[in-house]
Amino acid sequence: MKGWFGKYLYIDLSSKSFKYVDIPGDVLVDYIGGRGLAARLLWDLNPVGVNPLSPENHLILAVGPLTGFPLPSSGKMVLASKSPITGGYGDGNIGTRAAVELRKMGVDAVVIKGKATTPTVLHLDCGNVIFKDGRDYWGLTTVDTEEKLKKELGKDVAVLSIGPAGEKLVKYATVISEFGRSAGRPGIGAVMGSKNLKAIAIHGCSEPEPADRSELLRLGAEAYRKVKESPGYEFWCRQGTMATIEWSQKNSCLPTYNFSEGVFEDWEGIDGYIMESMKVRVKACPNCNMPCGNVVKYVTSTDSGEAELDYENVAMLGSNIGLAPLNKVAHINYLADIYGIDTISLGNVIGYAMELSEKGILSEKIEWGDYSKVKELTRQIAYREGIGDLLAEGVAAVSRKLGGDALKYAVHVKGLEVSAYDCHAAPGMALAYATSPIGAHHKDAWMIALEVRVGRFDYTKEKVERVIWLQNIRGGMFESLTTCRLPWVEVSLDLEYYPKLLTAATGYTYNWDKIYETANRIYTLIRAFWVREYAAAGLKWSYQQDLPPAKWFTQPLSKGPLKGSKLDADGYMRMLRWYYELRGWDEDGVPRRSTLERLGLSYTIPVLEKLGVKLS
Q1: What's the pLDDT tens digit per position in 26-57?
Q2: Domain covering 231-420 assigned CATH 1.10.569.10 in the classification
Q3: Residue 35 main-chain phi, psi, to 5 deg
Q4: How far apart are CA 54 and CA 194, in angstroms?
Q5: Fold agreement between 231-420 and 424-492+511-616
Q6: Tens-digit pLDDT profile for residues 53-106
Q7: Count of alpha carbons within 13 angstroms of residue 56, beta-carbon side
Q8: What phi and psi, each to the nearest 5 degrees, are found at residue 89?
Q9: Phi/psi of residue 612, nearest 5 degrees
Q10: Of the candidates 114, 100, 418, which has an alpha carbon nearest to the alpha carbon of residue 260?
């Protein structure tokens, strides 16, 4: 095959064994790679209803047919597993040399099961697998782990590692690479920790062969040029995603005080211009010519260092917990990175604890913007000490444990905390969060930008159609290629490049109809996976799993230009019903039999029916 290698590397930590497994060509064509391949492998390989922290749960690292080729922002990979925090499908992408080196291992994916008897580092070296004693690494931060591994194995090795949070099975622990790049919001770091897998060091030797190298190189060079010629290129290189702080403030969607408000009084202390004044360098993924990794040098009265910042982590660790200025936010971000904690969920959990404390529901005194307390809580969460042991379980688990009024203030979908856009006045974005395939996350459909342009208070079928289109392009295509969506999103690189590049890489003709069908297949398979896992746990899937946080319906904004705004429940339910209809799912969000058959997912039907799922 061209573009793909047609096999995955299967590693069993329990037996310290590995093998190479062929991937049928039709599976690669139908699922492309990255997220699509990961979802299919999880369906096929995971035991039904497996505990996410069980040795039998599989951890998957997947690249796509464009990964590593010389074209814009192709240095991406997807990490996927059954999620410890949601109990459903979980994944995240990461842009580092680890993606390119994994591709050079001569595989389309690495699949890891089992549990090592002692802490272990996997060294994937030119097709060989070395089970390295990891006891000297256990307990180290992600920074110390990567530095130590590079010193021992060579500076050219790429490293994915977990910190203390992953070791302690914090439910939103992530995987870290290159001292600040993070992946796997739904607890992929905890999955690694449950397997006694401290790190994966990768060095590959095999170069993928495209079907039409000259055309791929021509298209890639042209796309690189178009990126740099964009009118927004210069400002993007200055601020990257940090420009969104000012944009969100002006449009009253900047998450503030646990998503109670959309504006923050101290927003100018954490915005992109402050970041520019602190910036010391930028970082980029491999093959990227529009770097977004803004590294700042910070100094507070008690702390100093460097941290890589973007909008999501600054909003969640800044305005959402009432913390400013940026030097303090940067240090909390640094702590999250070295401990291996997702910054988005961390900002949610701490903001939730602050609101519960304010309301008297939580006895612990945790005040908005208390920098010293936030530092302490971050460490306690990472090591599961004191109240950190409870908060390490995530917002949904805390709300269930406390019960009563605590449920009113919990901001999550399906157990995953919401990322950094308040949706009191954004029903389309609320729908995007509620139907995201991993729980609340923005990467699949950044709908808020369109709503700001076309109307914040409309509950229309056109918005629903746009949410699905965005999901299919961003989460279906980009997450499976795997390349970064930002050249298209931020500097308007023409989407037409991508089917052309995919065709040049693989030799298969991909047009938009084929890509859209593939994306629908991926989203429907992931939904079937959720339904399967819920049924295996004795739970009936219902539309209630696709509802945004109650707070956005019941507690209107009290500040800013959209004061008094809140979501309308009836309007939202109309949109959700349209969403199901357009996806070919029933009134509870379960894929219909005809939809599964049409998308080539008939193999899921007997599994679902055996579990008692009624397919309409």
Answers
A1: 999 999 999 999 999 999 999 999 999 999 99
A2: yes
A3: -60, -45
A4: 7
A5: no
A6: 999 999 999 999 999 999 999 999 999 999 999 999 999 999 999 999 999 999
A7: 9
A8: -70, 135
A9: 90, 10
A10: 418
